[in-house]
Design goal:
It contains ten helices and eight strands. By secondary structure, it is of the alpha/beta class. It folds into two domains: 203 residues, Metal-dependent hydrolases (TIM Barrel, Alpha-Beta Barrel); 59 residues, Orthogonal Bundle (DNA polymerase, domain 1). The longest helix is centred in the middle third of the chain and has 27 residues.
């Protein structure tokens, strides 16, 4: 069902297919009035998105999505209402982009050894000067006839244990949360339903996140099943976390992750936007 609030979306500044301005215009057309741009490890698209938001009647939440590590598991943290000029955040994101570049080159080398030359150059071209990540490699592999679609390419070449996989060396969870807090932002544990963790280990992750200064969990997400929404809601209740909602939009070709296509939050949870913006409170009413 449509929602006026969407706090997780990506543009061509990372692995989305719409420019920041195009993303804002699409969000407006979908009825979204409070939108967060949360590109992977970069804030490069925020200025363009902010310039487009006003004329479209959209309130833009400056955001970012950090890749972090917790007990060897890759965990994503969305930062909302950040100050992109914060020195600590800027330095941290620069280091993350260096790590991403090194990983992308390693993936290209591994794919070349597997008989797929030119993958790094192809992924870099698709990134268009933005952050290179596995989504760009997947799109290149499909174009090269190595997968039916990006999901198939991921499964065949890019997931752990596959020929093109290179292990990440991201910032630790607590340090990443610290960058967001230093920038005046709210740290949100992104899409917990996607982590292949036991119930007990997921609770330990949420506890560690809360202890590090995390304030919210993404309860409703474009990739969450109804059962995963309930699990995420349970984490919010158990650990005293606010609840966020975001489509995790990347491209128009994924209708199940359309901007604003989100179920309502469970009514007993505190929305992460409740104390941040009057427009959000009006949109949620």
């Amino acid at each position: 069902m449509p929602s006026a609030i969407d706090l997780h979306a990506h543009s061509t500044a990372s692995d989305g297919t719409l420019s920041p301005a195009e993303l804002v215009r699409r969000a407006a057309a979908q009825g979204v009035r409070l939108l967060a741009l949360t590109d992977h490890d970069t804030t490069a698209g925020l200025a363009e998105a902010a310039a487009a938001a006003g004329p479209e009647g959209v309130e833009l939440v400056p955001g970012v999505e950090l890749s972090t590590l917790w007990e060897g598991i890759e965990v994503h943290v969305v930062g909302l209402w950040i100050d992109p000029a914060c020195p600590a955040l800027r330095a941290g994101l620069a280091a993350q982009r260096e790590r991403r570049g090194a990983r992308a080159r390693a993936m290209g080398e591994r794919l070349a050894r597997a008989g797929i030359p030119g993958a790094y150059e192809g992924a870099r071209a698709l990134a268009g000067g933005g952050v290179v990540n596995r989504s760009h490699f997947a799109r290149y592999l499909v174009a090269a006839g190595r997968g039916r679609d990006p999901g198939d390419a991921f499964d065949r070449y890019l997931r752990q244990g596959r020929p093109g996989y290179a292990p990440p060396e991201w910032v630790g969870l607590a340090e990443g949360v610290g960058w967001i807090r230093a920038a005046g932002g709210t740290a949100v544990l992104a899409h917990p339903g996607r982590y292949r963790l036991s119930a007990g280990r997921l609770r330990r992750l949420a506890a560690a996140f809360r202890e590090a200064g995390g304030e919210a969990v993404e309860v409703v997400c474009g990739s969450h099943t109804p059962a995963q929404v309930q699990v995420a809601a349970g984490l919010a209740r158990r650990h005293g976390l606010a609840a966020s909602a975001g489509s995790d939009f990347h491209a128009p070709c994924n209708p199940w992750r359309e901007l604003g296509r989100l179920a309502p939050l469970p009514p007993d949870l505190t929305p992460v936007w409740a104390a941040r913006t009057p427009r959000a409170r009006e949109g949620a009413a």
